[in-house]
Write a structure and sequence with these properties.
The chain is built from nine helices and five strands; from the N terminus they run H-H-E-E-H-E-H-H-E-E-H-H-H-H. By secondary structure, the chain is α/β, with parallel strands linked by helices. It has one domain: Ribonuclease H-like superfamily/Ribonuclease H (Nucleotidyltransferase, domain 5). A five-stranded mixed beta sheet has the order 3-2-1-4-5. A hairpin with an 8-residue loop joins strand 1 and strand 2. It is globular. The model has no long low-confidence stretch (mean pLDDT 95).
Length: 220
């Protein structure tokens, strides 16, 4: 594939991934928050959510489900999304909250916090708050904002894909910091997921203060 052909494909994908956003804008909705999370499955660390409000003329190519992108590409897009977004917010629930209320409820709580953070940021810029949410496969009853739940939203909505990148890079950086504190579990590479190195670290050194005990019932 030539560079020109790749450019055309990226431009076409950008248009396709704005279908939900265009439909809402036709109805007069301007401030659309895409919401996604990362970190439901790991044995350690927080679940992290992001809410991103993009402008109608957002033109950054390559935004996609964060799982489909290389670390280098995610880092590159992270800065571009933050620079061009109208607003963005982060929400986190740590392992203690996850153990207390379960991972699904913790995910929803983190998402709600991210939405409220983005909403505050918009209002600080003297813009209306978030008017509609596009969310990856979840409904947030705690948030009194109209919302659309989209299956595989991070692959089908530009706003949700942008949120997936912001959430992923934020959490990955945090887990790399945790690796410096707890260097025997491979957090810099596995980001808290249950790899062989991670389980070997638990077997040899026990669990850390950031481990999810409810995820480790079978081995504790």
């Amino acid at each position: 594939m030539t560079k020109a052909e790749r450019q055309i494909l990226l431009e076409e994908k950008l248009i396709t991934m704005q279908t939900y956003e265009r439909d809402l804008r036709k109805k007069g909705v301007t401030y659309i928050g895409g919401v996604d999370e990362v970190g439901r499955g790991p044995l350690a660390g927080p679940v992290t959510a992001a809410c991103v409000v993009l402008p109608e003329d957002f033109d950054v190519l390559g935004v996609d489900d964060s799982k489909k992108l290389s670390e280098k590409k995610r880092e590159e897009l992270f800065d571009k999304i933050k620079e061009k977004a109208l607003a963005w917010g982060i929400g986190m629930c740590d392992n203690r909250v996850i153990d207390e209320i379960n991972i699904l409820e913790a995910t929803k709580k983190a998402m709600a916090e991210a939405v409220w953070a983005a909403d505050r940021q918009l209002k600080e810029k003297r813009m209306p708050g978030v008017e509609h949410l596009l969310i990856d496969a979840v409904t947030l009853k705690a948030v009194n904002i109209p919302q659309t739940s989209i299956i595989k939203g991070d692959a089908n909505s530009l706003s949700i894909a942008a949120a997936s990148i912001i959430a992923k890079v934020t959490r990955d950086r945090l887990m790399t910091e945790y690796h410096r504190q707890y260097p025997f579990y491979g957090f810099d590479s596995n980001k808290g997921y249950g790899t062989k190195a991670h389980y070997e670290g638990i077997d040899k050194y026990g669990i850390t203060p950031i481990h999810r005990k409810t995820f480790l019932k079978n081995i504790l």
